[in-house]
Every structure is written in structure tokens, then in C-alpha cells.
Design brief:
Length: about 400
Amino acid sequence: MNWSELYWHRITPLHLLLWPASLLYIVFQTIRRYLYRRAILTAVKITVPVIVIDSITANNTEKSPILIWVINLLKSYGLRPAIIGRGYPDNYHRPMAVTNAGNARLTGDESLLLSNMLHQSCPIWIGYDRIEVAKALLQTHPECNVLVCNDGLQDLRLHRDTEVIVVNTNHVNFGNGLIMPAGPLRDRLSRLKNADAVLTAESRQQVPDVGRRARVFRFDLQEQKYVNLMQPILAANINELNEKRIYAIATETNAQRFVDNLKFLKAALTIKTFPAEHKFTQKDFELDNVQMILMPWEDAVKCLGINDARIWYPWQECQIEPGLREVILQRLREKFMDPKLLDILVCPLCKGPLIYKKDNQELICKPDRLAYSIRDGIPVMLEDEARAIPPEEDIK
Ligand code: ZN
């Protein structure tokens, strides 16, 4: 357990002292929600649909696999998703793109992980103000037609079309069950009633009442594998590791959890621990006769610049009940019925405007002579799947 887990799992005199602050926080949130509901405060609508995916607790590490599942789902339907978020809670920076070359101190390690896992195929932007981030991202990437917000449960200023909340009431995530700052909960559990979908790794019976609007879906983390940092498309299972000469590196913050994680490994293992704020350099990796270097992902992503093909990190993919797919796609279909939204879509190839042909359910790029089809209400914005318009066909 790290300090935050230790803190959140107990009720001490300090927690009782903080309890009034938690109450104040609840009152503040309730008033804000009321003002937004009564349209006294208005949420900002981004031009493209926004899906918010966030956890009801502050220390949930299962959100990244869920986010990757959703991004891959959107991509498989021909959509062009992008990720926005704050990056890390106290980020006061202006909007910036996250790249593999990014500095974890600037972008937060989770953003770097997402960038690495998604092979940089989906733009990720972070910054203090999520609305500014969304606008800046769409200006640079006008081809993006759906934004996934990797936090922002309480950022009611950002209008969301779909809200997915991850809730795990197990001991690890739920802690002492108190609301911040006395506990890990970011809001009252009644907040789940406003969501479109609630995800849990536990049984449905353990999920608090979600009301009539939200639907509950289960997600399962798959068997652990190891992903290559420089080529995340490469993955190894635990049996493949047993035949290798392995060295493990971790900072103190992640070391204990990492050691627990590796205890199933039969191969002889040397673990080197570095101080929490250690800045890794090439020198730390001058290891002869080592085939694989294992690191927790939080530390591994800080070593992208070191370019060592031997670095791998443990990873668990997730599977989610298909019902979530329907919730997300249905909301997107409703959004894409709006001609105004179809109007702002651009050709992913030339980034130029498209002509909407309602009868054929196609979006036409005149300069490229390509017709992007709208399949079952979802525009398939993939140049490989677009219909090439023959020279004899007239484009008006
Ligand atoms: Zn074009």
C-alpha cells in the first residue's frame, strides 16, 4: 500500500477533522449541479460529441484499459476519436498535445501510457481547462469527430453526450467510503443516477442504486501480459518470460506493488529500486547479459526517451459487456442525425469540407473524389473504406 491507500483506508482523528470539509464539498457540488440543471449556469457544448469516462473514486487504476477499449470500439466503427483531459489533477498548463516524447512531469504518466498503448494513433491533449483543450485539439485535428474525456466527472461546465462512471466498491478502490478530502469518493453515490452507464468489475448486486437512467455493465481485466515499451504492439505472456534473463527496475513509489505483481514469475529476478523522484538516464540501463527489463508502467513511460528495446511493462486488457457498445453507439447515432454536425465533418485525407448526400447517406470530398458512407447512422471516416467516385459520376 502506498501512502494514499493507507490514508484512504482508515478513519483517524484527522479524517474526522476533515469531515466538515467533505460536507462543504458535497454542498458545493449539489448547488453547482442544481444551477446547471436549472440552466442558471450553462454547460459549454463542443461541436463534436463528448463521452466522459471517469471513476467515482480518486484512486482507480482500471480506467486506462477501459478508455483504450472505448477508443478501439470507436475506431472499429470508422469514427475518429481523440482523448482530452487534465492529465494530472493539479495541471495548470495551457492545452498541449501528449506525444511519446512527452515529459511525464508535464503530461502525467497516464497520458503517456495511453499515447504509448494507442501507438499514437489517436490524438491526446491535456491542459487545465478541458474546454480550451477540446477547442485546441479540434483546431489542430479537425478530422476528429468524437472526444473522449478521460476525467471531468465534476467538470459540469463541459457538456457531455454520454457519461460512463467506473465504480468499484471493493476494498482497494472504495477505501473508507468517505467523500473527499476525508475519503477517496469524488461525489455522492447518488451521482451514479445521472450517468448513462456504470461499469464495475464486481457483481451487479454490489453496485449501489443507479436509478432508472443508468445501465450497469461488467468489465473484466484479462490475464496479465507484458508490453514492449518501444513497440507496444509486441506482447509477451508470463511463460515466455520464464525463459529470459530478466532485470526489474522500479521507483520506491511503485516497487512494493510491482514486486507483488512479479511473484508468479519463475525466472530468477534482480530488482533494483530507485528513489521516488529519480530521473532515469541511459546509465541506469547499462546492463549486460539482460534480455528483458521489467518496469511498472508508471516508471516505464518515463523512459521512452531512453529508447531501450528491452523495457517491458505489465498490462491487463479489459473486456466489457457488449451492452456498453450499444449505449455509446446509440447516443452517437442520435447526435449524427443532426445535419449541423455532419456539416462540420471534414475529409480525413485533405481536411477539406464534405458535401452531405442524404439520399445515398454519403459524405463527398470533391477534390479527392471520395464518398464516405454513413453506415447505420455512423459516418465511416476511413479513406480505405471510402468509395472512389468514378470520373463519369457527377458531383454537385
Ligand atoms: Zn478530401
